[in-house]
């Protein structure tokens, strides 16, 4: 029987008009933004692939939930709806809502980290490492070596190297490791998943040494899809069942609901330890809001709760990851270098192989993102030396092996035609790649420089 083409499991009810610009207009916009795509005005962007954080399209079910938002200052009904769904789908006992994921990272880092601590994890993430370092910790990468190789086809490149973790514990001692930070999926590696077998072994090792495991669950539902489709023994299990088991191997999680949970704002810290929860719900009052709203309106908590119900549906996650795969497979067919295997939320162009004539200090990924905007009005994000920042002790630039441009697809936003335009634009740049110039940095902020740094062409 001939395989049928798949289609999105939704229909369009409302549209937002897009603005098209001329190359001359985009050149002015690029110069005014200092060749940093984060500083572009959204009005000047045609297809926005900067991030999937808060840029998703909510459903009619979620919008209906916004109408019934309970905006009571204390004890909002929407908080209890969210709490029940976190317990149901993720399995954690206690919930502290936050305005977004970095609010949860802030609370967790303040509570568990003391100066001199070591936090191992499966590759850094920008805001996560920043909060850890602000509290005096040092992040240590313990991801498998294949994660740093864009051409490796290892299906679970997000896995933690157990040997690296054990060696680190032996070297510094378990008491200096407040927790192991496990990301699912691993953003900076190209949206790569971690296997169920791996997180289970990590959990067993950490319990032996009395070290906590804290999950970045921002895209754990996407990770569950990869477990279902790639890992033996899970094909017949639901996304809900896989997600629940996956989270059971951790002691808590930070969550940016702006990704998996299909909302425009919101996050939470979820925990199983009462004492940590007690400290977190006291601290959230200082930094976010009362422990039953945590910086969110009731309607936003309701949208996040309902988004959770939709996100674990297989048809949704299959279409979401299928759209990303469609773009990746077509770029590969054209010979364009991307991170393999294709990840969950984005296609990552390998700027080192795309622009081999540029040195890493010429910021090739930052430059490629700028030239893609100039070519077609498509906004993407650098994930390389600029995002990696500087060593907190020496001030030297971190020089990651991966120098990437991330084409991130918001959930339920763009059509296949937008995907085709993106593919054609990248192909055009690739054909003209030898003429593309690098950049030099002319302004560097103190923290998370990729958000606000400014550049000029070499």
CATH superfamily of the largest domain: Type I PLP-dependent aspartate aminotransferase-like (Major domain)
CATH architectural grouping of the largest domain: 3-Layer(aba) Sandwich
Quaternary state reads single chain
In whole angstroms, the N-to-C terminal distance is 56 Å
Radius of gyration: 21 Å
Shape descriptor: globular
Write down the overall mean pLDDT: 96
Q: So how many helices?
A: 16
Structural class: alpha/beta
Query: What proportion strand?
Result: 5-15%
CATH class of the largest domain: Alpha Beta
The total strand number stands at 14
What does the main sheet amount to? 5 strands, mixed
Number of domains: 2
Strand order of the largest sheet: 2-8-7-6-5
Q: How helix-rich are the residues, as a percent range?
A: 25-40%
Task: Spell out the helices and strands N to C.
Answer: HEHHEHEHEHEHEHHEEHHHEHHEEHEHEE
Show unreliable segments: none
According to CATH, the fold-level topology of the largest domain is Aspartate Aminotransferase, domain 2
């Amino acid at each position: 029987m001939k395989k049928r083409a798949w289609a999105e499991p939704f229909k369009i009810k409302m549209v937002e008009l897009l603005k098209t610009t001329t190359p001359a207009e985009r050149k002015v916009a690029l110069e005014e933004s200092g060749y940093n795509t984060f500083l572009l005005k959204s009005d000047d962007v045609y297809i926005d692939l900067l991030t999937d954080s808060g840029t998703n399209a909510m459903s009619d079910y979620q919008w209906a939930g916004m109408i019934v938002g309970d905006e009571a200052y204390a004890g909002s009904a929407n908080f209890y709806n969210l709490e029940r769904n976190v317990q149901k789908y993720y399995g954690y006992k206690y919930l502290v809502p936050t305005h977004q994921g970095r609010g949860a990272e802030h609370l967790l880092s303040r509570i568990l980290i003391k100066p001199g601590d070591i936090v191992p994890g499966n590759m850094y993430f920008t805001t996560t490492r920043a909060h850890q370092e602000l509290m005096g910790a040092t992040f240590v990468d313990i991801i498998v070596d294949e994660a740093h190789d864009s051409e490796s086809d290892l299906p679970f490149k997000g896995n933690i190297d157990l040997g690296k973790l054990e060696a680190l514990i032996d070297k510094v001692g378990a008491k200096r490791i407040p927790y192991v930070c496990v990301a699912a999926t691993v953003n900076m590696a190209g949206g790569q998943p971690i296997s169920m077998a791996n997180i289970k072994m990590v959990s067993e090792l950490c319990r032996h040494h009395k070290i906590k495991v804290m999950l970045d669950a921002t895209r754990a539902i996407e990770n569950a899809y990869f477990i279902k489709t790639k890992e033996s023994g899970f094909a017949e299990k639901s996304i809900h069942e896989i997600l629940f088991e996956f989270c059971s191997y951790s002691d808590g999680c930070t969550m940016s609901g702006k990704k998996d949970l299909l909302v425009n704002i919101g996050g939470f810290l979820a925990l199983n330890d009462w004492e940590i929860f007690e400290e977190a719900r006291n601290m959230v009052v200082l930094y976010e809001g009362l422990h039953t709203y945590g910086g969110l309106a009731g309607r936003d908590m309701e949208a996040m709760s309902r988004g959770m119900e939709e996100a674990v549906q297989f048809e949704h996650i299959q279409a979401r990851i299928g759209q990303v795969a469609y773009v990746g497979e077509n770029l590969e067919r054209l010979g364009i270098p991307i991170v393999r295997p294709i990840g969950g939320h984005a296609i990552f162009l390998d700027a080192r192989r795309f622009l081999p004539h540029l040195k890493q200090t010429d910021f090739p990924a930052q430059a490629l993102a700028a030239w893609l905007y100039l070519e077609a009005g498509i906004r993407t994000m650098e994930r390389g030396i600029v995002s990696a920042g500087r060593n907190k002790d020496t001030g030297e630039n971190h020089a990651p092996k991966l120098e990437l441009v991330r084409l991130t697809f918001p959930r339920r936003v763009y059509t296949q035609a937008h995907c085709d335009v993106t593919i054609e634009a990248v192909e055009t740049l690739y054909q003209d790649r030898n003429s593309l110039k690098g950049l030099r940095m002319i302004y560097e902020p103190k923290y998370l420089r990729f958000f606000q740094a400014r550049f000029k062409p070499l």
